[in-house]
Design a protein that fits this description.
This protein has 197 residues and is α+β, with helices and mostly antiparallel strands. Helices cover 55% and strands 12% of the residues. The chain has nine helices and five strands, in the order αββαβαααααββαα. Strand 2, helix 2 and strand 3 form a beta-alpha-beta unit.
């Protein structure tokens, strides 16, 4: 019990994380959502991937791990489309890291639908099918939802982690990648305790 109390004092709202003024709806209200806000063009997000991915695999069954591509300018839209297209085509596990690597390791120009299509095709996706999904109404709708979520989350940079649509955790406040995950775990426990009441 003393351990829990000490941890309660360890992370404080306004210091280690921000409480959002308005809760944002989560994908599954029956679970505690952890939503990573990222951008393929962000080198910190690329580096964070090697930390958050293994961590996300260890989350309990009552936690729903989601990602939201940050779109705060039109130039970022193709990357959000790429992410949602990968999910729709069920190839996210095949293309997520290759997109990052094309930009940050191979230093390729990845800006247009054609640039992105090349990465998908290299992973065995039919180019016509990719193009159809990438330009679909469904993907437009997901991109617009991501834009409004990012506004609601009050994201100031990437990567950031939003816990249950209520709390925003950034590297600045939490003190680096591992700090972010520790604060996220603290907030997951806080939400779990609130649900148990």
């Amino acid at each position: 019990m003393a351990m829990c109390q000490a941890q309660g004092d360890q992370y404080q709202a306004g210091v280690h994380y921000e409480v959002l003024p308005q809760s944002i709806r989560t994908a599954d209200p029956n679970k505690i959502e952890v939503n990573e806000v990222f951008s393929y063009t962000c080198s910190h997000c690329y580096n964070f991937e090697s930390v958050i991915h293994p961590w996300s695999e260890t989350l309990a069954a009552d936690v729903d791990f989601q990602r939201t591509p940050a779109v705060w300018q039109p130039a970022l839209e193709p990357y959000a489309r790429a992410y949602f297209s990968a999910k729709a085509l069920k190839v996210l596990d095949k293309v997520h890291i290759p997109i990052f690597e094309a930009i940050h390791v191979q230093r390729k120009s990845v800006r247009t639908e054609q640039d992105i299509a090349a990465i998908f095709v290299a992973q065995g996706v039919d180019k016509a099918k990719f193009s159809q999904v990438y330009n679909s109404f469904g993907i437009n709708s997901l991109v617009n939802q991501a834009k409004s979520r990012v506004r609601g989350y009050r994201v100031q940079g990437t990567p950031e982690v939003i816990v249950n649509g209520k709390y925003r955790v950034s590297t600045r406040n939490a003190g680096g990648f591992n700090g972010m995950l520790k604060v996220a775990e603290f907030l997951i426990d806080k939400e779990r305790a609130a649900r148990a009441k």
